[in-house]
Amino acid sequence: MDVFEISKKILHEGPICDHCLGRQFAKLSTGLSNKERGQALKLALVLEGDRAYKSEKDNYLLKQLSCCSVFARKALGTKGEDEKCWVCLDQFKKLDVWADKAAKALEGLEYSTFLVGTKISGLLSENEEILWAEAGTLYAEQLKTELNREVGKRIAEKVQKDVDLKNPDITITLNLAKSDLELQIRSVYIISRYCKMVRGIPQTRWPCRKCKGKGCEICNFTGKQYHESVDEFIKGPVIEAFQAADTAFHGSGREDIDALMLGGGRPFIVEAKSPKKRSVNLEELMKSINNKADGKIYVRELSFVGKNMIEILKSLKADKTYKLKVTFKEPVSEKELKACLESLSGTEINQQTPRRVVHRRADIVRKRYVNSIKLDELTEEGYAYIIVNCEGGLYVKELISGDDGRTNPSLSGLLGIFTLVGDLDVINVDV
Questions:
Q1: In the chain, fewer beta carbons within 10 Å around the N or the C end?
Q2: Are 110 and 50 in contact (CB under 8 A)?
Q3: Rounded to the nearest 10 degrees, what angle do helices 59-76 and 34-55 cross at?
Q4: Which residues lie closer than 8 Å to 51 by C-beta, 6 or more apart?
Q5: CATH tag, 91-185
Q6: Residues with catalytic function
Q7: Is residue 41 within 8 Å of 59, Cβ to Cβ?
Q8: In angstroms, rounded to a whole number, what is the distance separating the alpha carbons of residues 209 and 226?
Q9: Strand, helix or coil at 326?
Q10: Distance of CA 293 to CAs 121, 198, 242, 296, Å?
Q11: For 115-148, how does the pLDDT look when each residue is reduced to its tens digit (9 = 90+)?
Q12: What is the DSSP secondary structure assignment for residue 13, as one 8-state letter?
């Protein structure tokens, strides 16, 4: 079926705007807008209808084309009253209204690029499906595709920003059913490293075990199990700097709450959600975080990254180096201790999920590797400082204690006496 035949079938369905008629042939020709396509088709049908009327040689053709000519004339505004398009319900008369709404909503936000999306109503979707079924055109594009493009062009002109189809700073969604729009502001991501200089501070926000964050007498109605966290020291300054709605903390592993994080620090990414500002002096932000933390933690080497870095950071199998303060139930000699540590060095460990975390992790046996373990100091008081470099994911406390045989081999098992980690410091994360 040729273009004219399809156009006649479409016009017989009822009044249709230039955009909706031209959109049925959007994949034909280039350099034309759908509106221009629709206008051209209607004009051609009017001319052909008049030609057939004047020639009067083919009554059937005359009847068909004259009928289409009437619809086309009405649509062109050359005869009859202006009728509402039955397909889009005159959505294309509202393009400037949408653009004005979007420009107003974008005021006060810092951004370089945007993208328009559209949620169409069930009625509009049904109208389009009826048209496609009746006309049978293979060259059409969707209503929302044209609306996105046409509104986007008008917004770009008003706000003097660029459209980005892949990774826009802001996505503007037109909700046709509600006659309203929504803004989705892309998060800003910053990678850094933190060191934790005091014990008793968790990495992330920890809701109260009793009330699950709602607030109760146990947590003094704060909703928190612990008053402070690495996450929250960073959160406030980031929200203030970016004028963000909230933050999310993405760490490369985590250390125990009673552990220090020393050395080069642990890598993390902080996500500033729905930021009103995007360009921030990261050196000043670093100072602000460190000042707020008052020596309890400090961060360094802040830089902007993309969202994809979160997955990369989480998937890194980083080796870690720990310094452990180890106590023994009975006295041990330096020679005996060194011999046991030597037998653990370069060894694969079979480690069943420790009892202390089995409530939140699958109870399975994992294989982890100890790269090296050595004695740093055996004190006169009878405790030892031990340096362990091991594969990420190894529970080093249980490597020492044995966890009642759930970790094997272990220092406690090799010595044959109860052995326990007092203090634990992470002194390096090899990322």
A1: N
A2: no
A3: 140
A4: none
A5: 3.30.2130.30
A6: 256
A7: no
A8: 10
A9: strand
A10: 50, 11, 19, 5
A11: 999 999 999 999 999 988 887 778 899 999 999 9
A12: T
Q: Any idea which residue has 């759908």 for tokens?
A: 34
Nearest alpha carbon to residue 412 among 304, 330, 352, 350: 330
Q: Which run of H or of E encompasses 343? A: helix 334-344
Long-range (24+ apart) CB contacts under 8 A made by 213-218 are none
Do the domains spanning 91-185 and 188-196+233-315 agree at the CATH topology level? no
Whether 10 has a pLDDT exceeding 70, the answer reads yes
Alpha-helix runs per DSSP H in 160-274: 230-242
Architecture of domain 319-430: 2-Layer Sandwich (3.30)
pLDDT at 233: 96
pTM value is: 0.83
Instruction: Give Dmax (Cα) for the chain.
Output: 119
**45 and 8 in contact (C-beta within 8 Å)?**
yes
Question: Counting beta carbons within 10 angstroms of the beta carbon of residue 429, is it exposed (0 to 12), middle (13 to 18) or buried (19 or more)?
Answer: buried
Mean pLDDT over the full length of the chain: 90
Q: How far apart are CA 15 and CA 86, in angstroms?
A: 6
Spell out where 74-179 has E strands.
Answer: 113-119, 162-163, 170-175
Chain segment 51-63, per-residue pLDDT in tens? 766 666 555 554 5
Nearest to 189 by CA among 118, 122, 120, 282: 282
- Name the token pair of 245: 């709605």
Mean pLDDT lowest among 12-21, 235-244, 266-275? 12-21
CATH 3.30.70.2510 fits 188-196+233-315, yes or no: yes
Here the tokens at position 28 are 């034909």
Query: 429 with 386: CB under 8 angstroms?
Result: no
Q: Are 154 and 34 in contact (CB under 8 A)?
A: no
| Pair of tokens at residue 253 | 């592993």
- Specify whether the CB–CB gap between 93 and 151 falls below 8 A: no
Give the residue from 200, 201, 198, 424 showing the smallest Cα distance to 327.
424
| pLDDT score, position 53 | 64
Single-letter residue type at 78: T
Please check the confidence at residue 376 and state whether its pLDDT lies above 80. yes
- In this predicted structure, the answer to whether residue 333 has a pLDDT above a threshold of 50 is yes
Domain ranges across the chain: 3-76, 91-185, 188-196+233-315, 319-430
The answer for residues whose C-beta is within 8 angstroms of residue 115's C-beta and 6 or more apart is 148, 152, 163, 164, 165, 168, 170, 171, 172
Q: Residues for the chain: how many in total?
A: 431
Three-state SS at 310: helix
